[in-house]
Specification:
With 418 residues, this protein is α/β, with parallel strands linked by helices. The chain folds into 2 domains: 217 residues, Rossmann fold (3-Layer(aba) Sandwich); 183 residues, Rossmann fold. It is 44% helix and 15% strand. The strands form 2 sheets. A 7-stranded parallel sheet has the order 3-2-1-4-5-6-7, with helices on both faces. Strand 9, helix 11 and strand 10 form a beta-alpha-beta unit. Helix 1 crosses helix 16. It is elongated, with a radius of gyration of 23 Å.
């Protein structure tokens, strides 16, 4: 429509909206509030049944590329014809063939087809592309940017950094105008592969505290001695290997029989059934509630009803690992003490003995010891939870990171086409 503000930036991601990617929703909403005109481009349609409250506030138009090329052959053919006619396909073909030779998969071909569609359908007003994740989505954006002769930038997070081959990461970083990532480990890894020392910046997601109520003024002083009022543990995350929920169940099984506790897990994931079966083998079924994926309102209710947050992250067999999970900061927003692993980006927020307790990854005995100690000590939980809330407020505000990304996007728009 003629009265509408036309998007200047296209922001791409693998799937939109997704409950597990609150950090992306927070960024989109923050950019919208700063007045940046953008559109959202997604490689997949949503699969979550619920939506985060932030997604309902995001007004940007959403475009979905063909998830599988054979589902929408007409769009793919029109896209291919468009890039052949304007002469831009040959500039991408050499890049694509090198990529295909090193990764000869149908997925690689799908990325090229999606890029052709995007190159044809992008509004003329868009002069810069930004992509979340350096793996599949960045391949599409790299090809599409080349076809439309546009600049692009990226936000790298966790899995994309640790499971993408070095050759692919380094070539995408070289082709990008700039990038950001959200943990010291990730930043160090991308700096190692960068063609310019200042190209990739360390930018924490932080948390927008305006979206969260203040912590409860009083918490019940549960100490695990009353079977009618057990200590309440909560954990949040997709049931995947890197979250370490199998280690958590093993640790819970080692807690003393006289210690009364309950665990709530929030999140979906492929391993939910296997975890429930593990809990049954360990005799823990009656003490654990598997809530499945929940929207923010229900997550906050669960956090406020709990006494302690636990997340035993570790490296998965394929190299995948967490960054700094937003759920750790969400737990801190409700002044919950945190028991987690000294791994990935977690110790960048949680300092052992200050905001929570940290244990080595996969150390089930140490995890059980920390859970047992804090379960019996409500006063220490109160002190650690208060320190976590203070650290969140003072050092991990979302505004600083959002301002950095907003200004970087404005600079890219000012530069125009590469």
């Amino acid at each position: 429509m003629s009265g509408e503000v036309q998007p200047r930036v296209a922001i791409a991601m693998k799937g939109y909206p997704r409950l597990s990617e609150t950090f992306i929703a927070q960024e989109l909403l923050g950019l919208q509030r700063r007045g940046l005109p953008f559109a959202i481009w997604s490689l997949r349609h949503p699969t979550d049944g619920a939506q985060h409250l932030m997604h309902k506030e995001i007004a940007a138009p959403v475009h979905y590329l063909p998830e599988y090329l054979h589902d929408e052959p007409r769009r793919v053919l029109l896209g291919l014809r468009h890039v052949l006619a304007n002469g831009s396909f040959l500039g991408v073909l050499g890049i694509f063939l090198r990529d295909l030779w090193r990764e000869p998969t149908a997925n690689r071909i799908r990325r090229l087809g999606q890029a052709c569609v995007m190159a044809r359908e992008l509004p003329a007003s868009v002069t810069h592309l930004h992509v979340h994740y350096l793996h599949t989505p960045a391949s599409v954006i790299r090809y599409a940017a080349r076809m439309r002769r546009l600049s692009f930038s990226f936000s790298a997070h966790a899995k994309d950094i640790w499971t993408t081959p070095d050759w692919e990461k380094s070539e995408k970083i070289r082709a990008a105008q700039w990038g950001v990532t959200c943990t010291v480990d990730g930043h160090r890894e991308l700096q190692r592969l960068s063609d310019r020392p200042d190209k990739v910046a360390l930018v924490y997601h932080g948390l927008d505290l305006a979206r969260f109520p203040a912590p409860l003024a009083d918490r019940a002083a549960r100490d695990g001695s009353d079977p009618a009022d057990p200590v309440r543990f909560v954990t949040i995350g997709r049931a995947v290997e890197k979250k370490g929920f199998d280690d958590l169940l093993a640790a819970l099984a080692r807690l003393p029989a006289k210690l009364h506790w309950q665990l709530i897990h929030i999140g979906g994931g492929d391993r939910l059934k296997a975890l429930a079966e593990q809990a049954e083998r360990l005799g823990l079924t009656r003490r654990i509630t598997w809530l499945g994926p929940k929207a923010q309102r229900e997550v906050i209710v669960a956090l406020r009803a709990s006494d302690l947050f636990v997340l035993p992250s570790k490296q998965a067999g394929d190299g995948d690992r967490d960054g700094l999970p937003n759920v750790v900061m969400e737990a801190a927003s409700q002044a919950l003490p945190i028991v987690a692993t000294d791994f990935a980006g977690i110790p960048e927020f949680v300092r052992d003995g200050v905001e929570g307790l940290l244990v080595p990854p996969r150390d089930v005995d140490a995890l059980a010891k920390c859970l047992g100690e804090l379960a019996r000590d409500p006063a220490r939980r109160l002190a650690l939870g208060g320190a976590a809330y203070k650290r969140l407020r003072e050092d991990f505000s979302a505004d600083a990171g959002l301002d950095h990304i907003h200004q970087a996007l404005l600079r890219s728009l000012a530069k125009g086409r590469p």
